[in-house]
């Protein structure tokens, strides 16, 4: 049986309908169901990107197939978010206004208001598993503005509902913490107006007059201030800047003119693919192991994060639904010594294990932000090349279903089920994708957790080479905090997921170590008969002595060049190569057996210095100077 909405909401809904006849405007106040929810107007979300994420989630829950976000970048004075979802009728609008934090989603009342599927309060009318829970997503825009407008219409209705909202700031002194009185979170004006296209449906949120703090962040104002002062260079890619004290862009050709990795006439999907390639394969003059904050302004960083958060298709294909060439796949099965099994089949993981296809992806959901169509910016083919000795990526896949032995759900939280992969690659670009990303029914409120849920084992080198996604299909939702960006670590589901992840990390790292050790022994045997082999053994012995438990991590190879054309990035990093110029280090010596030996000796010394991280803080030119003097000491005539 479907429960009807509350009497207050029905009364307000009827007042909204009456505006169709008399053209009046209904004025009321926003009320919260709990004091703590009032803090939504005081910014419980961490940054502007969170507001866009929540609006996208609302559109998804409304069965939208298309969401279009339009900004007036780089000014950021006006933003609109439109979808073609079911829209809201007067009663649903009234419930939203009078019950912030008391969402009709996941309740029996939801079906009567048209926000849930009859008979299944956890599904949208169209059958999607709901993302939203407590009804504050729309009001996440308080991070951006104090006033906004919502225009919503249901299919085959001749009227649309317009809601104009002005939010209030929450004050600790305004009400007692233990007060049961509802908090008035803002003022609302609501009216109905005729709609010419009765077949249309959807909701548009219009944000005008963004807060100065929000505009400052969206404009990357602090970054551009440092650029103007000569403290840093402009971001590699950006949407442009506005003149200080003005709302106009910099003149063409100036430092603040937009620089984008796609062409304005590219189709939205092609433009996004080029954007991903630009970040995944940064040009040589940029950092070799960049963060997105090193490459992008805030707006483009936001694009990247939104693409990761929504239940969108991947930029290529889901890793479980594709045959991954040049990736060695292992199955994580059981908990014994043989729990890691190399897959012999060339079938996709989902096919081989009969897992659901497209886990966490809504194939009929598309999000456009200005001229880009967002997709998950994760790639599993054509990964960046590396000089690391172990070049073949490894993927470890597993599945968990735990009902906690039928324990009372009040204690256990109910059953927990998820699918996961851990991908080891010699180099992850950008480095922001190092860590674990949890998706609940396809959506994620946070980025990659580089701590892997606080994994304590001292494997810092290999942890920097692992990216992981966990697709939760049952459970964990109750462990999400109100902002959907963090977890309650005391919840049983978080503890179970953490244990599984840490065990999977241990097994994955152990397998990669075994493979790496076997490869190193093979390479050692090949070079043991010559001088270079002896030097390599010395270097390997030193690294073992210095690094201890990390002794089997790859030693950075030395590459000799005709000249240094770019900064080597992190020259002492364990997974990096060391670039040395023959001309600058060895001079104009003739090719001979002695010259070859000197070259090998200098290279070995550079690797020994790298073991102590003594090259980390040196520039490329400083490294060449240091090694040139070492070459003189090894063989004085080397610089002759």
3D architecture notes:
This protein has 640 residues and is α+β, with helices and mostly antiparallel strands. It folds into three domains: 7-211, Heat Shock Protein 90 (2-Layer Sandwich), CATH 3.30.565; 316-365 and 374-513, no CATH class; 531-639, no CATH class. The protein is built from 17 helices and 17 strands. The chain has helices at residues 7-22, 48-61, 90-98, 109-113, 212-218, 221-228, 268-280, 292-295, 298-309, 349-353, 409-412, 460-463, 492-527, 531-547, 582-586, 593-611, 620-634; strands at 26-31, 66-71, 78-83, 147-153, 159-167, 184-194, 202-208, 328-332, 340-342, 366-369, 372-374, 394-402, 416-424, 435-440, 466-474, 558-561, 578-581. The strands form three sheets. The chain has a nine-stranded mixed β-sheet with strand order 1-6-5-4-7-3-2-10-11. β10 (366-369) and β11 (372-374) form a beta hairpin. α1 crosses α3 (90-98), α13 packs antiparallel against α14 (531-547) and α16 packs across α17 (620-634). The longest helix has 36 residues, at 492-527. It starts with 6 loop residues before the first helix and ends in a 6-residue tail after the last helix. Keywords: ATP-binding, Nucleotide-binding.
């Amino acid at each position: 049986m479907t429960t009807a909405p509350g009497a207050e909401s029905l009364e307000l809904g009827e007042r909204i309908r009456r505006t169709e006849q008399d053209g009046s405007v209904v004025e009321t106040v926003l009320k919260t169901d709990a004091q703590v929810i009032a803090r939504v107007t005081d910014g419980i979300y961490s940054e502007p990107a969170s507001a866009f994420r929540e609006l996208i989630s609302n559109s998804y829950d409304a069965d939208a197939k298309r969401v279009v976000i339009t900004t007036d970048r780089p000014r950021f004075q006006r933003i609109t978010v439109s979808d073609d979802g079911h829209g809201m009728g007067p009663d649903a609008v009234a419930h939203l206004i009078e019950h912030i934090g008391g969402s009709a989603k996941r309740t029996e009342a939801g079906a009567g208001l048209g926000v849930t599927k009859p008979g299944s309060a956890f599904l949208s009318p169209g059958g999607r598993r709901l993302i939203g829970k407590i009804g504050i997503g729309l009001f996440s825009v308080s991070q951006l503005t104090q006033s906004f407008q919502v225009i919503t219409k249901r299919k085959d209705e001749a009227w649309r509902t317009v809601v104009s909202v002005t939010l209030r700031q929450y004050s600790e002194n305004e009400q007692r913490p233990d007060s049961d009185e509802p908090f008035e979170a803002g003022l609302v004006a609501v009216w109905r107006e005729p709609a010419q296209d009765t077949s249309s449906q959807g909701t548009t949120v219009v944000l005008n007059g963004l807060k100065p703090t929000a505009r400052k962040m969206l404009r990357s104002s602090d970054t551009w201030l440092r650029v103007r002062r000569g403290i840093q260079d402009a971001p590699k890619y950006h949407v442009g800047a506005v003149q200080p004290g003005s709302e106009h862009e910099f003149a063409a050709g100036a430092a603040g003119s937009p620089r984008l990795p796609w062409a304005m006439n590219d189709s939205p999907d092609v433009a996004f693919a080029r954007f991903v390639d630009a970040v995944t394969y940064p040009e040589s003059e940029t950092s070799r192991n960049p963060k997105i904050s090193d490459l992008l302004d805030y707006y483009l960083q936001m694009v990247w994060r939104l693409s990761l958060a929504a239940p969108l298709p991947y930029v290529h294909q889901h890793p479980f639904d594709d045959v991954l060439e040049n990736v060695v796949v292992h199955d994580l099965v059981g908990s014994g010594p043989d729990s890691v099994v190399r897959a012999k089949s060339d079938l996709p993981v989902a096919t081989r294990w009969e897992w659901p296809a497209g886990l966490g992806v809504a194939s009929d959901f598309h999000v456009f932000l200005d001229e880009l169509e967002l997709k998950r910016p994760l790639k599993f083919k054509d990964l960046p090349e590396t000089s690391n000795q172990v070049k073949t990526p490894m993927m470890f896949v597993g599945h968990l279903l735990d009902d906690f032995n039928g324990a009372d759900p009040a204690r256990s939280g109910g059953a927990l089920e998820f699918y996961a992969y851990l991908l080891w690659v010699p180099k992850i670009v950008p480095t922001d994708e190092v860590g674990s990303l949890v998706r609940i029914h396809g959506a994620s409120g946070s980025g990659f957790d580089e701590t892997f849920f606080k994994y304590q084992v001292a494997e810092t080198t290999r942890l920097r080479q692992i990216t992981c996604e966990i697709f939760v299909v049952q459970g964990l939702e109750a462990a999400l905090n109100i902002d959907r960006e963090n977890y309650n670590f005391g919840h049983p589901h978080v503890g179970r997921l953490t244990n599984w992840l840490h065990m999977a990390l241990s097994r994955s790292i152990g397998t990669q170590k075994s493979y790496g050790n076997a490869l190193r022994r093979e390479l050692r045997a090949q070079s043991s008969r010559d001088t270079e082999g002896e030097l390599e053994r010395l270097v390997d012995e030193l690294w073992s002595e210095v690094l201890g438990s990390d002794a089997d991590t790859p030693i950075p190879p030395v590459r000799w060049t005709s000249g240094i054309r770019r900064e080597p990035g992190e020259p002492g990093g364990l997974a990096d190569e060391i670039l040395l110029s023959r001309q600058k280090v060895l001079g104009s010596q003739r090719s001979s057996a002695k010259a070859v030996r000197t070259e090998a000796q200098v290279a070995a010394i550079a690797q020994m210095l790298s073991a102590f991280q003594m090259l980390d803080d040196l520039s490329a030119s400083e490294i060449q100077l240091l090694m040139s003097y070492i070459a003189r000491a090894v063989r004085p005539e080397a610089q002759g």
